[in-house]
Amino acid sequence: MVFLLLFATMTAPFAQATQTAYAQQDAEQLRALMDRATSRADSLLVRYRLYPLTEDEAVLEGIPSSLSDATAREYALLSGLWAYKAGEASFLSAIQCGRRSTNLLETAKAQAPEDPFVLLVEGQSLLFRPAIAGKDPAAAAKRFARLAEIVDEHAVAGISRTEAQVWQWVALREADRTRQAEALWTQLQDRDLLPLYQQFIEDPPEV
């Protein structure tokens, strides 16, 4: 955890700017940040945030199939990008992209299973993957709940507690944990939510 907090501090300005633009649904600001990314980690992060807002396949062009000497965060972010590619690919290509995403995520988990971005990407993977590939919204809700605890306690740059809890709520709804989902929804409604999170609770993503 000491390494995690040191790494978060080192990357805080870019990561926080990226997270803020994402929550504000500001694709143009994210594109500007992508042009200014000076490290592999920053480039992966801003692409991971930009693609869901735009679904612009150009954002995924040129992403590596593997990494060497990478952090758990980098492996997790790259896993997320390959999961995006799987969602856009033809059936056979989707299988290949999905397998690559899973392998990258397993590498990330082996390094640091409670890195915030590992928890975030793993939770999303468990939520969005096909049932035949191991979809498990209840397990996803647990990952997001743990993520909310970590970012709340340590103020991790690049992920907010609200983001973690919004995803937790989506997963609880999908898992038919109605009582827990309603209690969390009430908490979220009491906050002044940024545009993306307000959209999520008004019109949840299809999973």
Topology:
Layout: H1 2-10, H2 12-23, H3 27-36, H4 40-54, H5 72-88, H6 91-111, H7 116-128, H8 137-154, H9 161-174, H10 178-189, H11 195-202
Helix pairs in contact: 2-3, 2-4, 3-4, 4-5, 5-6, 5-7, 6-7, 7-8, 7-9, 8-9, 9-10
Quick rundown:
The protein is mainly alpha-helical. Helices cover 72% and strands 0% of the residues.
Structure characterization notes:
- The chain is mainly α and 207 residues long.
- It has a single domain, classed as Serine Threonine Protein Phosphatase 5, Tetratricopeptide repeat (Alpha Horseshoe).
- Helices cover 72% and strands 0% of the residues.
- It contains eleven helices and no strands.
- Helix 2 runs antiparallel to helix 3 (27-36).
- It starts with a helix and ends in a 5-residue tail after the last helix.
Percentage of residues in DSSP E strands: under 5%
Q: Helicity level, as a percent range? A: over 70%
Helix/strand-derived category reads: mainly alpha
Radius of gyration: 16 Å
Helix and strand run: HHHHHHHHHHH
Poorly predicted ranges: 1-10
Terminal Cα separation, in Å?
31 Å
Query: Could you say what the CATH topology is called?
Result: Serine Threonine Protein Phosphatase 5, Tetratricopeptide repeat
User: What is the class in the CATH system?
Assistant: Mainly Alpha
Major sheet characteristics: none
- In CATH, the architecture is Alpha Horseshoe
Total domain count: 1
Number of helices: 11
The overall pLDDT, averaged over residues, is 92
Globally, the shape reads: globular
Give the total of beta strands.
0
Features:
single chain, about 210 residues, mainly alpha, Serine Threonine Protein Phosphatase 5, Tetratricopeptide repeat, about 70% helix, about 0% strand, disordered N terminus
